[in-house]
Write a structure and sequence with these properties.
- The chain contains 3 helices and 10 strands, in the order E-H-E-E-E-H-E-H-E-E-E-E-E.
- The chain has about 180 residues and is α+β, with helices and mostly antiparallel strands.
- Strands 1, 2, 3, 4, 5, 6, 7, 8, 9 and 10 form a 10-stranded mixed β-sheet that branches.
- The chain is globular, with a radius of gyration of 16 Å.
Amino acid sequence: MSENRSSVALTVVRLPRYTKAEQEEILGTGDDPFGVASTGLTWLPKEDHFGIRHDDRLVAHAGLLRLPVAIDGAETEVVGVGGVAVAPRMQGRGLARLVVTAALEHARTMGPRHALLFCRPPLVPLYRRLGWHSLDRDVLVEQPEDRLVTMPLRTMVTPLRDDARWPSGAVRLFSLPM
């Protein structure tokens, strides 16, 4: 008997933590679960976590972290979104939309006017459908040993306030990427 995709209402919950074991529950135990190892970057863990469970298994996740940035030299903060994952067997059911939307609802309570994420080019259309916009310029991020590098992945932003407009100018993240 095939599974009825609409038979179970999936809801997003705030997770008290997000462990390596939980990540493996979603994505398996591969060496490069997010497909970004080739960038050679060191990433920050997220502080706030949102997930979806199905049949007592974690099947989707999105994490948040408040970060300092400078845009055209003006210092501000953004909410970094990262660790977005949907179990392969659950893809195509709108779980990314559900978990990212719930995470952004929380991000709106955190203060910054924008959320920012880094993604591989094949994921850009997904995030565009969710209301994100690509930045058309390089973004500098910090790395260990006081290195400053250009982010090789696509940088995307979305407003967290109705009146928020992303300013033009050079962007520098004053931390490791999230």
